[in-house]
Amino acid sequence: MSRARILPWLNLTLRSACSLCRAGFMEGQPQGLPNPAEMENGTKPCGEERPSEIQETTVTEGAAKIAFPSANEVFYNPVQEFNRDLTCAVITEFARIQLAAKGIQIKVPGEKDVQKVVVDLSEQEEEKAEMKEGANLAPGDQPRTAAVGEICEEGLRVLEGLAASGLRSIRFAREVPGLQSVVANDASARAVDLICRNVQLNGVAHLVHPRQADARMLMYQHQKVSERFDVIDLDPYGSPAPFLDAAVQAVSEGVADTGVERGLSVPDCPRWLMAISHPQALRIVLHSLDLRANCYQRFVVPLLSISADFYVRVFVRVFTGQAKVKASASKQALVFQCVGCGTFHLQQSWVKFSAACGPPVAPECEHCGQRHQLGGPLWAEPIHDLDFVGRVLEAVSTNPGRFHTSERIRGVLSVITEELPDVPLYYTLDQLSSTIHCSTPSLLQLRSALLHAGFQVSLSHACKNAVKTDAPSSALWDIMRCWEKECPVKRERLSETSPAFRILSVEPRLQANFTIRDDANPSSRQRGLKRFQANPEANWGPRPRARPGGKAAGEAMEERRRLHQNKRKEPAEDPVQRAARLKTFPCKRFKEGTCQRGDECCYSHSSPTPEDAAEATPNDGPKTPYQNPPGPGVATGPGVD
Ligand SMILES: C[S@@+](CC[C@H](N)C(=O)[O-])C[C@H]1O[C@@H](n2cnc3c(N)ncnc32)[C@H](O)[C@@H]1O
Ligand SMILES: *[C@@H]1O[C@H](CO)[C@@H](O)[C@H](O)[C@H]1NC(C)=O
Ligand SMILES: *[C@@H]1O[C@H](CO)[C@@H](O)[C@H](O)[C@H]1NC(C)=O
Ligand SMILES: [Zn+2]
């Protein structure tokens, strides 16, 4: 991620409501968008079956079996399985909370009966308890439950706005209990045909209702309080921006008195994210979402925000409330970042209804003397509800058979529970060490030094080299100065005006202690959880939009993908980035004790932990520049989740 990438991003979020929508209609023009005359707004009748295409593939994912025209593989992206599994897990917890408030217990496949699990009764007592329970009920009055695949009259009304093959909706219907209905909508006629066929194939026609409409129009038609959806899932190819305005108005209201809220989930899309730097996305998406909600006296409360593979996905609740909306202004911040050493400072725009004073930095960086770049605005509040994340984590950990990607869900959510909630930005190990051209301390050494000095430190689920800390930048640079003393950098190689020279010419005031502490090793890492995914498959990455032209076009495109895989030349990688990226790989010669290059070696000389070795090696390193974003080095934006 280069410095320059911050700016287009910010332009996007800063655009006015009108231009955002207009941009949406131009850029977000869906593939195969039927002409308006063809567009229907009623439930799509699934009666007339088309003759099935000559070649067809079926894929099983979760409890759904989906037919795809194999001519057009873009309809199924297996890498998104984690995303869909996680979404099922999140909506299940949401349904559990929501329905419990109405006295309905959801029955999750694989979970034992809650009463029997929670209360560890002896058999006799259990019998007594069951008898008592029975005694309290009027004859014929069963405790109310909701199971998967059946309509729950008081359950959640779900909209999947961009449903493609219907896979996600069908999985909701077959795997998430407590649903009243699922509308599976897509603008493309071909997609809706496919949805209809798959709905029949899976026997969920009673729950899943295919629709063909522009998702925005559909959501605008559901603004009336009584017609809103309880869950809206949006999974666009491009920017989610065009959908935010309609979405924040079509999602039902939080139920404040029970403390239980309704939700909305908005993920982000690959293509758009590739143009901007991926770790920055979450907080900017949250900020733009809140901004849209604010227009309608509503505001968002994040439940869970994930940056994974090539996309980000945020789960938020939406509430109405004038007073709270006013407070939204103080949830956003700008970032000042030094272009020389990468040190950043947050600047809130508002503090308790009055304009904040600033800037938080002098014109020249206190550490290296260079200028600052301005970034943001971004969401500066916590991005997860840890209580809710804990529930999802608990449910998935105790029932791992439920999802194919349970292990990864467990790893990622565990890192999230360890993240410092009040520290929005992070540095990366590589960025810190490449700024002063020194060797890279191990993550444990740096974390230990911060803890010894009395600060907090955590990872970020968005980046495996992240250093999130409440230490002031002066303390962080002192620790790096002390580290450099242990593996000195040759001063004569440094230009006197370089950030490295300036930083290293100051004596540290803090005496860093790099002795490894037990508590420096995050528990998720100690337990060996699967936390940061290596590239999952050969052709991994976002799928292109479906294109007219059928099979031949599809094949030609796959061929192009194959040709370009690992060969993305444009934009050419910046030398600084390349150096930083190489530095994240352990040096083989150094391991064997034969590397002569010392500090000059382009590979890392820090001893890799077994996990690091498993997660990144020179041979199966990042396959595109977008995953495992390279250590930013001197010329990058701050890591933001
Ligand atoms: C990334 S795919 C959705 C994948 C799906 N959610 C899943 O998990 O399998 C995006 C879909 O959005 C549809 N689409 C694009 N713009 C749309 C719009 N304005 N309204 C409705 N659907 C749209 C496209 O036809 C495409 O099928
Ligand atoms: C769609 O809805 C509009 C407004 O409710 C209506 O005028 C139109 O006839 C509908 N179109 C179809 C195909 O149902
Ligand atoms: C560093 O920390 C270790 C473990 O707490 C301690 O034994 C050691 O004395 C410390 N070293 C310094 C120089 O303070
Ligand atoms: Zn600086």
UniProtKB/TrEMBL annotation:
Its EC number is 2.1.1.216. The keyword Metal-binding applies. Residues 31-50, 517-577, 597-641 are annotated as: Disordered. CDD domains: AdoMet_MTases. The keyword Acetylation applies. Residues 581-608 form the C3H1-type domain. Keywords: Acetylation, Metal-binding, Methyltransferase, RNA-binding, S-adenosyl-L-methionine, Signal, Transferase, tRNA processing, tRNA-binding, Zinc, Zinc-finger. InterPro entries: SAM-dependent_MTases_sf (IPR029063), Trm1 (IPR002905), tRNA_met_Trm1_C (IPR042296), Znf_CCCH (IPR000571), Znf_CCCH_sf (IPR036855). GO terms for biological process: tRNA N2-guanine methylation. GO terms for cellular component: nucleus. It catalyses: guanosine(26) in tRNA + 2 S-adenosyl-L-methionine = N(2)-dimethylguanosine(26) in tRNA + 2 S-adenosyl-L-homocysteine + 2 H(+). One of its GO terms (molecular function) is tRNA (guanine(26)-N2)-dimethyltransferase activity. Residues 1-23 form the signal peptide. Belongs to the class I-like SAM-binding methyltransferase superfamily. Trm1 family. This is tRNA (guanine(26)-N(2))-dimethyltransferase. The lineage of its organism: Eukaryota, Metazoa, Chordata, Craniata, Vertebrata. The gene is TRMT1.
